[in-house]
Structure formats: structure tokens, C-alpha cells
Amino acid sequence: MSGWNLRAGAALATIALSATTLATGSASAAAGTVYYVDAVNGDDAAAGTSPATAWKSLAKASAAPLAPGGKLLLRRGSTWRGEQLRLARSGTAAAPIVVGSYGRAAAARPVIAGHAEACVSLEGAHIEVRNLQVGLTGDGVRCSWAGFEVTGNHNVIARNLITGAAAGVYIAPKVRHTAVTANEFVDNNHMSQLTPREVNPNDDSGAFAILIQGDESDIGWNKIRGSMAFSYDYGMDGAAVEIFLGSRNRVHHNIAVDNETFTELGTSKEIKDNGRPADPDGTSGNVFEYNLITGPQTHTGLVTRGPRQPGSPPDPNGPVLATAFRNNTVYLTHPESQGVVCDAGCTNAHLSMSQNIVHAVVKTAYGPDVTDSHHNVFFAARQHQMGGTDNVTADPLFALGDATHPLRPRAGSPAIDLGVTSFGRVDVTGRTIDTTDGPPDAGAYEFNK
């Protein structure tokens, strides 16, 4: 766990995202100037307004006079190392600025890598970035801090491959309404802070696929794997989705395989030099639903916290309020795995969990004072330390022999019709949740009757 300061499994990475019906651009977008960039054959002295007159550098592209409805297209097969794409201009809700690719469909996506800070900096608003590869693995070519650094509001990051960073996507404090949709995050396993314990025993940080410090983000339909790295302080560290300071974010319909933790949440009691708190509104109201969390290397599904452990000093990163964890499937086989952990005096004010399937080895759920836990299926762990009602302790009967959907429930599963509330319209595969034939199921899949 950071201090801030499958193979039930490989098959899950093949689940199609066709049900997301993600558009390639806003239908209402107004026409605007299109600019082209080609790292191989471009020329910064050219006009940049056609493939034949494409620019060459990202510095030139970053200075493009983009207006609402405009586009910036990077040629497939191009690679930019050590350059940053800085997007400081803004579109509108009706006419966003779109950044994407052009060229032969069979060619590799455009690659932006090797920047010491962020490979793509989203500073404006209403910008959509699609179909790029951001980052490479390895020192000297990775995006050393972030693949995407988001400091503007109402931006979309969709259908990109993001790899090799300390934070694949970083959403800065006070940023609102970022959509991170249908991307593939692979091996964002770099530590941004890594010091021996004798220097500082609680400051290691990094290996995040997505780090959220902003609010009202929508994180959905992504495939996330390999968010883990060595830590002097914690042994291993990293998370698929880390939320620190952020509130009212929705994390849903993601497939997370072999990440150190799926999600950890925290706040800060730090007082800044100006006398104001670092997190004036706290961390609260984050929702996790219809996620698949698995892989033999994953240690923990969800980690959150209350204000303090009885008899101990206040938790420096608590309390985190009103986290909702519902209709997720957690299947962990690591010998030290824990499904859900809410410590430091955690109560119903800090966590509610319903209609999940949780399979783990050490603990299915820990939160001795939590009673808002209901209609879940728990199985296999040596310990379960959480109250609640209408929960089932039984084998969820996963279809582990199914090469495509090994964590869907089989006929006879106790998860079928266990739920009472339909929290979404579709399950993790995009299948409609039809409650006319019975109550909703527990877990991320809706059984096909």
C-alpha cells in the first residue's frame, strides 16, 4: 500500500468492449481545422493542414491554434521520444477538440514516450484523446511520472494503450469530470518515490494505472494489468485505481488482472503553507461497481479506512467516507490475498458493500464494525471479519473452464437472483440486466437464464 505521502485469468483480458458503444467523436462536434503530425516525413515549416504538409514535432503540434471542433491527428507508425504533447486550448461540450491518429489501419498506433514529467499534458477543457500509445517500458523511454497528466476539466481519454509510467493517468486535485474509457493499461510499474526504509519508512509511491485526486471522474470499461512494483516500505506497491483526495468518482466495468491492489483510498490531514487543508472536502462518495478483480499476483481488492484504530493515533490518510462497493467479482488466489479491507475504526459511515462475490485466501472482508454489508457471496478465506445480513458463504460456482468468461456464475450458483437492487443497466460484458425474470445477481456478471 502506498503511503502517499489471470489466471482464472488471462482469458479475462479478451472480453470484448463492444458493448461500450464508444463513439469515435461527438456527433454534434462542429467542423474545425484538422492538423497532421508525422514523426518520419513531417516538416515543422509546412502548413500542417494535410497529410502531405504534416508537421514533424510535438512542440509544433502543441502550439497548433486548435479551436472547438478542431482535430490534431498523429500518423500511425510514428514515434516521438523525449517530447511532450501539451494540449492547453479548449473545445466545448458540443464541439470538443479531438486528438487521434491517421494513416494505414494496419500500422502501429502513434507512440509518445520518454518524457521526464508527463508524455501528454491535458491542460485545456473538452479535449478527447483517442487511439494512441502513450509510453514505452524501460528507463530512458518511459513516461517517467505520468502517461497522461490531467489538469483541465471535462476531458476524455479513450481507447489508448498506456504503459510504463509511475501513473498511467494522473488526474490532479480539483479537476472535475474526466472520462477514462476503454483503454488498455499494461505494466505501469514504475515507482515515483522509492527510498530505503532507514531513510524514510513510509514514503514509497507509484505503480498506479490510474491515480485520481480529482472529482466526478468516470473510469469505465478499461483493461488494467501489471500495476505493481518493488517497494522498500511495503514489499510490493501499486494499484489499478488509486483515489487520494478525490470524491464522487465512479469506477465501473473494468477488468483488472495482476495488480498489487485493485483500489486504495485515502485523504490527507496535511496543512499547506497557506494555512489551508490539502483536502478541504475530504475523500468521499466514491463508487465501485461491476468490476472484475483477479489474478494470482493480486494481493487485495479494496483498501479503505476510518479515522483511527482504537488506542492508536489518527490514521494520517483517514477517514475516507461513504465508499460504495457493489456488484463486483473478486477472485484472488494469492496465498496472502484479502478481498476487502476497511480498518482504522471503519464503520458504515466509511464503507457499504452489497451484491459482490468475494473469493480470497486470508480474508474475504475485514471491517469488524461494518454492518452495511448485504447480499454478498463470500468464499474460501480463512477469516471473515465483517457484519451484515443476507450474505451467503458458499462456493460461487464460477465457470472456471470457460476460456472466455471464467468468472461468470454457473447454473446453481448462489449469486443468481441474490440481489435486491439493480445498480446498472448492463453487466461487465455489456449484457442487459433484465430483472423481469427475477432479482439481479450478485457479482459483475448477470446470469443468462
Descriptive notes:
- It comes from Nonomuraea polychroma.
- This is Parallel beta helix pectate lyase-like protein.
- Residues 1-29 form the signal peptide.
- InterPro entries: Pectin_lyas_fold, Pectin_lyase_fold/virulence.
- The chain has 449 residues and is mainly beta.
- The chain contains 1 helix and 41 strands.
- The strands form 6 sheets. Strands 1-2-5-8-11-14-19-24-28-32-35-38 form a 12-stranded parallel β-sheet, with no helix packed on it.
- A hairpin with a 3-residue loop joins β21 (229-231) and β22 (235-237).
- The longest helix is centred in the N-terminal third of the chain and has 5 residues, at 58-62.
- The protein is globular.
The level-1 CATH class: Mainly Beta
Shape: globular
Count of alpha/pi helices:
1
Going by helix content, strand content and strand pairing, the class is mainly beta
Number of domains: 1
Q: Compute the number of strand runs.
A: 41
In percent, how much strand structure appears in the residues? 25-35%
